[in-house]
Design goal:
The protein has 495 residues and is α/β, with parallel strands linked by helices. It has two domains: 154 residues, no CATH class; 297 residues, Peptidase S8/S53 domain (Rossmann fold). The chain has ten helices and 22 strands. The relative contact order is 0.15.
């Protein structure tokens, strides 16, 4: 059984890209849920399987002719057939996918409407509804595939683990070699901190999107309530490690973040302890950022829950639109490529059942995010693609994928732990985001504002501004930012 998902995206110059993806098994096919699924969604021995998937669908503008916002349902001459089809198949109530934005329909000034949409922005046309108990993903697709006014749909699964790594018990922090000069294999933080104004990230706002953190770590101490959306729920060790790379305090203990003076907040993929919504978290993060600020997506997704086939989160159309809208606002979105080992250029061939991603889809449908791969060889300065990292022409940059020292925990009550083993595209993405935040601080101190995403990506891809992997661009992981070269190329102001 398989779920066919068709996702259409409006891209630059009016082109439309189409991706067809397949989830190999439905969420309730065998009554079991993978280990990362919260207890509330696991099978109940006394009552059978529970629902833990969400139907996500986008409606065409005609469906709004009879839409009743107060009742959260479709009706009238245009919406009636859609509501009838949803009701007949057990979907009793549909809610806005992007609920973080309190908006009247059609009043979305920062969300550009797709040509032909009339007054309804594309992000206002996404809805979600829990999959009825006992249903498989394949059955949902079969029942609703021909429903009127539904343009695209997919079944959304709980966020998978961001990266599988082991915590080290050794709390002695190794030298943060990634802070060294590019000639020594680092990103060059030490080369710019005391040379250029703003190199500590002062004046730059950052939001980290993932699943959990420890805010009161002695080397972080985030002020107030840094959570702009959702619930601090899972994988706090991962989030704490990311925050340490970005903004560990410049004090007399522990490690130092790459941009220790930046303003750092977070957004969780978990709306509540039992509901998740990655694109809504991204949209909420974008609401508190300006052009030139940084939005970090420390997450990956699965096409079939528990498959361990990890892809960039933008593979789904709702998440792609959330990223694209943030990028269009001038925000620099930094997105993990994911730890699936996939060549994003080739896609997978049609075998009669599964067509996952068309060749060159990620390149042809550029979301505007800086996409980051991971490399081995940080301690030696000889970089090669990490086996687990996704790769392809779409990749902008790489970072260290092993041996990254940062803040850590060994239990939620630990507030003074450190680790030297942070890894994968999670570590690489945090490093590249830290470098970008430092660079934006220098640019802001020089010109009064940061670079918008497209301009920044152009500089990041200039081969004079980065460290190439051992086998050059043929590795298809981009290059690692060299902060000293970037600061010089952009004529940043000296201290």
């Amino acid at each position: 059984m398989s779920l066919v998902i068709e996702s259409q995206h409006r891209v630059a110059k009016g082109k439309t890209g189409v991706v067809v993806v397949v989830a190999g098994r439905g969420p309730l096919l065998d009554g079991r849920a993978p280990s990362h699924v919260p207890p509330a969604f696991r099978p109940d021995p006394g009552r059978g399987p529970r629902t833990w998937g969400n139907l996500v669908f986008r409606v065409d503008p005609l469906a709004y002719a009879g839409y009743d916002r107060a009742a959260l349902q479709f009706g009238g001459p245009a919406g009636g057939p859609l509501q009838e089809a949803l009701g007949e198949n057990g979907f009793q109530q549909s809610t806005f996918r992007f609920s973080a934005i309190d908006h009247p329909l059609g009043m979305l000034p920062w969300m550009p409407s797709v040509p032909g949409d009339g007054s309804v922005g594309v992000m206002a046309r996404y809805f979600q509804s829990p999959v009825p108990p006992g249903s498989t993903a394949a059955e949902v697709r079969e029942r609703l595939g021909g429903a009127p006014h539904i343009e695209v749909l997919h079944v959304d699964f709980p966020p998978p683990p961001p990266c599988t790594v082991a915590y080290t018990d050794d709390l002695k922090v190794a030298t943060q070699r990634y802070l060294d000069a590019a000639t020594a294999g680092g990103l060059g933080s030490k080369s710019v901190w005391n040379k250029y104004k703003g190199a500590d990230g002062a004046g730059v706002k950052v939001v980290d999107v993932e699943q959990g953190w420890v805010f009161n770590h002695v080397d972080l101490k985030l002020p107030g309530n840094p959570l702009v959306y959702g619930k601090n729920l899972l994988y706090q060790d991962h989030g704490t490690a990311v925050l340490g790379i970005l903004r560990a305090l410049d004090n007399t203990i522990g490690v130092v973040g790459m941009a220790p003076a930046c303003s750092l907040r977070v957004a969780s993929q978990w709306e509540t302890s039992t509901t998740w919504n990655t694109p809504d978290a991204i949209a909420a993060a974008a609401q508190v950022l300006r052009s030139g600020d940084v939005l970090v997506i420390e997450s990956q997704c699965e096409l079939s829950s528990g498959s361990n086939e990890f892809w960039p989160v933008e593979i789904y159309s709702d998440t792609w639109n959330a990223i694209r809208n943030a990028a269009d606002k001038g925000i620099v979105v930094v997105e993990a490529a994911g730890n699936g080992g996939h060549d994003l250029d080739t896609g997978l061939a049609w075998d009669g059942k599964t067509l996952v991603v068309a060749a060159n889809w990620f390149t042809d449908n550029d979301s505007g995010a800086v996409m980051v791969a991971a490399a081995d060889g940080g301690l030696t300065g000889s970089f090669t693609r990490q086996y687990e990292s996704n790769y392809g022409k779409r990749i902008d940059c790489f970072g260290w994928g092993t041996d990254v020292a940062t803040t850590g925990i060994s239990g939620l009550t630990t507030t003074n732990g450190y680790r030297t083993d942070f890894s994968g595209t999670s570590a690489a993405t945090a490093l590249v985001a830290g470098a970008i935040t430092s660079l934006q601080g220098m640019v802001r101190a020089t010109t009064g504002s940061g670079l918008a995403g497209p301009t920044l990506r152009t500089h990041l891809k200039d081969t004079g501004n980065g460290t190439l992997p051992t086998y050059g661009l043929a590795e298809k992981i981009g290059q690692m930012p060299n902060l000293a070269a970037l600061a010089a190329a952009l004529k940043c102001a000296s201290v």
